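Record minuted for everyone:
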Amino acid sequence: MLQITQYTGAVSDELMQLLLMADPDPEAVGRYIGAAEVLVAEEAKRLVGVAVVSAEAGVAELKNLAVAEAHRGRGIAKAMIAAAQGRARSKGAVEMVVGTGNSSVGQLCLYQKCGFRMLRIEKDYFAVYPEPIIENGIRCLDRVVLRADLRSGFEA
């Protein structure tokens, strides 16, 4: 049975490996992980997913979302998004934003299925990453930012 809880421990190697699936720059992860809320998904006491959320002035940001490869396609990411939205809503957030790469086709579909709408494109956001990111045969250069209204009552 899937359990999603807040994680308050040190960042283990296993957790960092999950975080790096969504954001391959360890320095970037290090910059936001300490000031954000970390949610983990576990099945049979095994770590299968992570979501990192920050909130400020009524706006929450889903900074990182990853599900272990062997556990994908089972609704875990949708459950984690719903949990993150619920936690953000309970802390007074009225909207949630998420950024993903222009080449992250699956993630773009997932976020839209969960009620997010495209907000803006930040050109060359990923061009400064230490290593080029290639997904689906596409170089990831631009960050697509999506927004969900948390007052609408939509749950992933």
Summary: The chain has a mean pLDDT of 94. DSSP finds four helices and nine strands in the chain. The first helix runs from residue 13 to 22. The two ends are 18 Å apart (CA to CA).
